Amino acid sequence: DTAVSQTPKYLVTQMGNDKSIKCEQNLGHDTMYWYKQDSKKFLKIMFSYNNKELIINETVPNRFSPKSPDKAHLNLHINSLELGDSAVYFCASSQELGQARQGNTEAFFGQGTRLTVV
Amino acid sequence: GQQVMQIPQYQHVQEGEDFTTYCNSSTTLSNIQWYKQRPGGHPVFLIQLVKSGEVKKQKRLTFQFGEAKKNSSLHITATQTTDVGTYFCAVISSGSARQLTFGSGTQLTVLP
Question: Which of A68, A79, B22, B57 is 20 to 30 A (C-alpha) from B31?
Fold first, then answer.
C-alpha cells in the first residue's frame, strides 16, 4: 500500500496549458505539502496545508493553486504553464508540525511528477 | 522562514572512503531531520535529532546535532555504491507558520 501517491508520474504539455497533479495520502496525516525540485536538486516548498490554514511560499506564482477536497487529498493546479515550470513536483504529508513538537514529524513523499513544458 | 545552509553541494568519493555533509543555521533549531533521495527517487526520512549534542547511529551512518543546536552533520563511514544519492537536512520553521524547509542537499557520487 502506497502511503503517499501522486499522479501522473510524467506530464508533458505545451506552454499556456492548464494542468493538475493529484495527491492522496492514506496515513491519516493532518498536513500536506507541495515541493518543487529543480535540476540542481533544490527542494523548494511551495505550499503547506492542514485543515486550518494554507501557507503559501511568497515566491510561488499565483498561477499555482492547491485544492484540497478533503483531508487526504491535496491537488496542485497550474494555469498558463511556462517553460520555467518544468521540474519534478513532490507531494508530501506529515503530522501537524505545530502539535508534534518533539514527536515524529517526518514527512512522507510521493514518487514525484516530472513536468516538462515544451 | 527558517534558513539552513548545507555543504558541500557535490561530493565524489572512491568506494570505501568516508563522506560528511554539514548543515548550519544562524538561529537555534528545535530539531533537525535528515533525508536521502536516490537517483530518480523521492526523499526518504532517515532520522530526527532533537537534543543538544545528540549523536545517533544507523549502521555506517552517524548523525550529530551541535551543542548549540545550530548545526548538524551526517557522516558515512566506508561508503558503498548503494550510498549514492542526495542527502538533505530539513528543519521546521519557527513561528506560527510552521513549514518543513529543506537544505540545498549534497549530491554524493561513489566511484567503484
Answer: A68
Sorted by where each begins, the domain ranges of chain B are 5-106
Q: How far is CA B21 from CA A23, A63, A76, B11, B109, in A?
A: 31, 36, 32, 9, 13
The domain B5-106 having CATH identifier 2.60.40.10: the answer here is: yes
The whole-angstrom distance between A118's CA and the closest CA on chain B is 21
pLDDT at A98: 63
Q: How close B45 gets to chain A, by Cα (Å)?
A: 6
Render B13-41 in DSSP notation, one character per residue. Answer: EETT--EEEEEE-SS--S-EEEEEE-TTS
**A105 pLDDT tier (thresholds 50, 70, 90):** confident
Note which residues in 49-108 of chain B have CB less than 8 A from chain A.
50, 86, 88, 90, 92, 96-102, 104-105, 107
Q: What is the pLDDT of residues B71-111, one digit of tens each?
A: 999 999 999 999 999 999 999 876 656 788 999 999 999 99
Q: Which pLDDT band, with edges at 50, 70 and 90, does A111 fall under?
A: very high
Instruction: Enumerate domains of chain A plus CATH numbers.
Output: 4-117 (2.60.40.10)
> Hey, are the CB atoms on A97 and B98 less than 8 Å from each other?
yes
